Please model this.
Amino acid sequence: NACRPWLQKQVQIIKPKIIVALGATAAQSLLGKATKITENRGKVLDSEFGPVIISWHPSSILRSIYDEDSKQKREELIKDLKLAAKKSK
Model:
């Protein structure tokens, strides 16, 4: 909340077509409420800042204990970034 005015000003200046929130903290900041990445990644969500796609933070991929989990999260992140690129055209 303390940084919200800066976020609002950045969005106002940059005017992004879509925002990718990496991780739960970024998602909560943009959406104004806690949200589960597992349930909402890969979707375009509405926020006061415009359309948002949430995905895994790269550090969560690196912290994954199991190789299969890390691989799956990495693939999902790449898919989400491709979706953002497609939606921003």
Observations:
- The mean pLDDT is 95.
- The first strand starts at residue 19 and ends at 22.
- The chain has five helices and three strands.
- The beta strands are 19-22, 44-45, 52-55.
